Amino acid sequence: MSEPTPEASRHIDTNRRRPWPYAATAAAGRQGVHPMDHEALASEMRGLREQVAGITDTALAAADGLLIAADTGDGIDAEGLAAMAAAGLGLARRTTQATGRGTLRRTVAYGSHGCAAFYAVGDTALMVVLGDEGIDVDRLHQHTQPALRRIGSLLTEGESSKERA
Known about the structure:
Distance between the termini: 48 Å
Region (Disordered): 1-20
CATH topology: Beta-Lactamase
Structural class: alpha+beta
Oligomer: single chain
Strand order of the largest sheet: 1-3-2-6-5-4
Organism: Streptomyces thermospinosisporus
InterPro entries: Roadblock/LAMTOR2_dom
CATH class: Alpha Beta
Helix content: 40-55%
Strand content: 15-25%
Domain Roadblock/LAMTOR2: 42-131
Protein name: Roadblock/LAMTOR2 domain-containing protein
Number of helices: 4
Radius of gyration: 16 Å
CATH superfamily: Dynein light chain 2a, cytoplasmic
Shape: globular
Number of strands: 6
């Protein structure tokens, strides 16, 4: 198992330029866009990495692939990761629906140096977790569920604050 990435070389991107899910409306110049609590989202991702040995990187994205927040090392293109994760999760979601397997919860891709786990956060977002070859995937799944519920609540609160404005 590799050593955790030192905090000094981590990149925390809270992507305040595109407050999800209002990236398109913000870009179109609409007023009243209220960003969600990006610091709380980043805290959830850091907390998950601290709870599960072997997590190297995490990112949160909208279902369309726009990056919401990331806790990644310098060697990871967080925006590219978000886009690829959304494409992969979208394909997995369509596959489970087309084959009558119900609502997609997660998918995991294993490589020779670790894995990438993709989790649906409702229908509108996703979280991707990268792990080294020593990660305990069962432990990851166990600790991810409460984090996903809290992240889903944070995303919903961000949406609700916009609707109240």
